[in-house]
Task: structure prediction
Amino acid sequence: MVTERLQVPAHPQGTATPVPAPSPAQELAALQELTAAEEVAAPEELTAAQERAALEELAATETPEALRAPIDRDLTEIAEALSPGKALDLGCGTGQNSVWLARRGWTVTGVDVSPSALAGGRSAASAAGVRLVLDRADITVWRPTSRFDLVVSTYALPERGKGRSRMLEMAVGAVAPGGTLLISEFDISLHRQGWMAEKYLVSREEIERHLGGFRINRSSVSMRRHRHGYEERVLPATTIVATRRTDLRHAL
Result:
């Protein structure tokens, strides 16, 4: 409680005018008035709908990394021209491409060997309100049980060798008749520039050798903005887009 000091004017003869002491009733009334002025209204109780909206707003501020990561531009260009169907995302990582497809009506299976990446994918799918089938497996040995309308591998190829060859054969075989295959990977020219080891890179010719029975719609090398963690660079990438001919209907 704060007490104010009253300034009393001097009496003309130089004697102070006495200030009468407040009565107990006056003190009580003053205290009640001060307390009422300092009261803060209690917050109203939230309804169930208001609580749900508040939780949703909080969740929106904690967006999973997969929903903040950029979607591969080649994928968006291709998928937006296709009718949604079944999609396979090889080396799906934390699922940004898988979630993007699922939001647009695709039924998506993602495969990755990293349990932490798949945990991020599940979190991203939950936050986006979509369903993904996520398999933990090595894509050099994993085999699908059905075919897909869209098979995607973006910057996920194993290093050059038997594992990569098996993975490419599997990816090609997983495409349904009339379906589309998209492969994007860092181009071999990065080795010639001294940036990366050759075994991690790819050439258009290496991919095209596996595409018997496909119509190649695009085979190109172009500069792509690529982000890994907090680092972002513009690097040359090989992109192959191919469609499986509809007269090939062999079972897996």
Observations:
- Strands lie at 86-90, 107-112, 132-136, 148-154, 175-186, 214-228, 231-244.
- The chain has a mean pLDDT of 79.
- Residues 72-244 form a domain with the Rossmann fold fold (CATH 3.40.50.150).
